[in-house]
Amino acid sequence: MRNMKVRLGDKLVGSDQPVYVIAEIGINHNGSIDIAKKLIDAAFLAGCDAVKFQKRTPELCVPHDQRDIERDTPWGRMSYIKYRHKVEFWKKEYDEIDSYCAARGMAWFASCWDEESVEFIRAYDVPCYKAPSATLTDIDLLLAMKSTGKPLILSTGMSTLEEIETAVGLIGTDNLLLAHATSTYPCPPQELNLRMIQTLQSMYPSVPVGYSGHETGLTPTWIAVSLGAIFIERHITLDRAMWGSDQAASVEIGGLVRLVQNIRDVERALGDGVKRVYPSEIGQRNKLRRIPSFESVTVPR
Predict the structure, then answer these.
(1) pLDDT tens string 223-257
(2) DSSP output for 169-199
(3) Which domains does the chain possess?
(4) Strand 5-8 relative to strand 11-14, pairing
(5) Distance between first and last Cα of the chain
(6) pTM summary value
(7) Cβ contact 60:86 at 8 Å
(8) What is the Cα–Cα distance from 90 to 116, expressed in whole angstroms?
(9) Rounded CA gap, 177 and 48, in Å?
C-alpha cells in the first residue's frame, strides 16, 4: 500500500484520505467576477474541496508575434493582448475571490503562468500552487513556485516521460503532487491514457498522483478514481456553449454535483481489500448455505 500525504490547507491529500476534488474555474469566468462567484457557489454546493483560477501577466505570456493579431470576442474585435487583459483578474478581483471563498470555507489557488504571477499570488494564503502542463519545462518558474514553501501540483500534459523525469529530478519530490493529463480540449477517450496514473504511481511512490481531465462526460474521471487517483481536477462552467476556449471541455453545474457524489460512491465501493462477511449477508448466509462452515472438514496438506 502506497502511503504518502501532502497537506493542502486544512486537508491532508493522500492514499488513505478522501479524494481531493478541485473545480477548475480557470478563465471560464470570461473576466466577470459575478460569473466567478457563481462558479464558486456551484463548487461549494457540489462539495468540492477547492476552486482554481489561472493567473497570467499578459505581457510575459503572449508571444510578441501574436500580440497584435486581431480576433473576434464577446467585446468586439480586438488584439490578442487586449483580449488577454480583458479576461485577466487583478488585485481587486482576487481580493473579492479571497474573501468570498473564505466566507464559504472554500480553498482557492491558481495556476501561475509566469514568475510575476507567482509573486502576485504570494499575497494570498493559498494552500498550494499549480504548474500548468505548458510550463513543465520552465524550470525557473517551477522553482519560483517551490520557493514559496507551499505544495506544488505539476500537470504532465503535452509532456514526454523524459521531460517529466527531468522536471521532477530538478525540483524534487518534497511537497510535490503530480497530475496525469492530456492537453487536448476536449480530449477524445482514446487519448486519455488513464493507466498513466498507475505508471506515475510506480515511478514516484512517495508522490500523490491525481488526474486533471479535459474530456466530455464524467465516466473517465470515475475510472481515474478507481485506478487510484488521489485528487481530481475538472474545469467547470455555467454553460458549455459559452464563449471561451475551455468551455467545451468543462463540466456544467448539474454534472459537477453528480461527479462529486459519484466519486464518493466509488471511494466507498472500492473498500479496503480485506475480505469479510458483512452483517447484511448473515440472513442470506443462514438461509441459503446448507453446510454452515468447513469446521468438520480436513483440508489435505
Answers:
(1) 999 999 999 999 999 999 998 888 999 999 999 99
(2) HHH-STTEEEEE----SSPPGGGT-TTHHHH
(3) 12-274 (3.20.20.70)
(4) antiparallel
(5) 31
(6) 0.94
(7) no
(8) 12
(9) 18
